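I had to read the description of the data format several times before I understood it. Each protein is reduced to its one-letter sequence and a matching series of backbone shape codes. The format is easy to grasp once an entry is in front of the reader. For illustration, here is how one protein appears when written out as sequence plus structure tokens:
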Amino acid sequence: MVLHPTVSSVTARIAGRSRPTRSAYLQQLHAAAARDRGTDRMGCANLAHAVAGMPLDDRFKVVTERAPNIAIVTAYNDMLSAHTPLKTYPDLIKDEVRKLGATAQVAGGVPAMCDGVTQGTSGMELSLFSRDVIAMATAVALSHDMFDAALMLGVCDKIVPGLLIGALHFGHLPTVFVPAGPMPSGLPNKEKARIREQAAQGLVGREGLLDAELKSYHSPGTCTFYGTANSNQMLLEAMGLHVPGTAFVAPGGTLRDELTREAARTVLGIIKAKRFAPIGLIVDERAIVNAMVALLATGGSTNHLIHWVAVAHSAGIVIDWNDFSDLSDVVPTLAHVYPNGSADVNQFQAAGGTGLIIRELLDAGLMHEDVLTVRDGGIREYTREPSLLESSLAWHDADASKDESIVRPVASPFSATGGLKLLQGNLGRSVIKVSAVPDDRHVIEGPARVFDSQEALHAAFNNSELDRDVVCVVRWQGPQANGMPELHKLTPPLAVLQGKGYRVALVTDGRMSGASGKVPAAIHVSPEAAAGGPLAKVRDGDVIRVDALTGLLQVLVGDAEWAARQTDVMPDGLRAGNAIGMGRQLFTGMRRHALTAEEGALSWM
């Protein structure tokens, strides 16, 4: 299939602008790969320290037989449902590689925090930068430098990007990612959203709301809506970093255990076949574009407009929001999964899942097929679904969609575009996700109401001050201001206002993860207000136009008046409050050095 011209041109543009940094990255990768094996380079005392905790048989294999040694980096904890299943993975992996004459060690653990737990609290202000902490923790784990390959165990929002960023800084190692899978379906998403909106209006009390939430999030596994966690898994499939079809297989059970063992066999197979497929070579500009296309085709999380910029940067590749926007213009929407539809990821998997999506995109020339993956068969293997055949793994081609209300072919998409738009104007650069926004809400023009915090907006809503057409501006929410928390708790009140017939929109330098759903939201506004961005000049009553059709984000104030208007400074009390308590002091340097959202909010540059 001939590659779509826009996909081709965007890829070429990325490759061109990345040539110096990618070349330098690959030079470092090849230099690291050309060294002697780690255990051969190490001094005797160093090696003795490294193997002292291993069983004697494993120690003999590493020291005497010079057997391959696999690093396991895990995000396991039993606080978070998504990572609880990872507890048993290291033992499965060690057992499997021993059968194949190799060894494995848990090289290190990384923190894993949950935005669902911290949403709307001070802890949420650590969330974005936890990605960089995870990347650093991954680097610490791999810095012992005695590994022939690595397995990354993690699932959720910042964890997978952090593991990937860290792994790419050890790009000479063959690396496979190992997910845990989603929890069983609980309370239908549409019902959950309805009860949340009722709670926002005071029609449902805490007991009723808690009952609904407990029925939604109820067992080990990933949350079943298509947020950042599950978008991670789709993108890793599209980049060829998983065992094919692993993403949405439920935790527990023989199939999931066998797929975990297959991840160990896969990474060990790269070594034994002497196939040069380290992660830094797999993740090139084509793989990055494939991930971007898969994100757009499935209506995935807008967080990846930040995270994948950082991921690409870690492989010497430079992408920006223009690249996402140009791809969105030609990539059709093929999936409707909550919050873009009513289905959850289990229903998505049953309807065709990742295999169907990747097959449709490849066949339409919307993804690069000439890419390297962790498997010998290349990216075409990822159009197949795993199953057990007499206790052994087998793969079969993805069939046609089993439910076209959830997954559709390219020939009859939900939309001809990816539902993501770049917005530009005198308020800066922003993005808007319109996958679930009604067509008559793609353009909103109305008077601004400016808020310095989420809490202030909630207070105004509770006082019925927002019962009108309004564009809510929530500022001081960017990386430098307070770590750029997600603002999910704004969705229910804004959805209530929209349900009453008012024309409302949100404009913010914070994040929404795509969870704005049916409410138009211009998010990630850059430069942020705390860095002197234009949101710091907006006043109550200014008319703002959010136009997803033409890509305009504009305050309708005369040029002379706008240029002369004073730029507000973040209040000292607010800045100080954002910097103290819940460990936020430890992240001061990250906030101070953070780049813009469009630059990946990198804190290590």
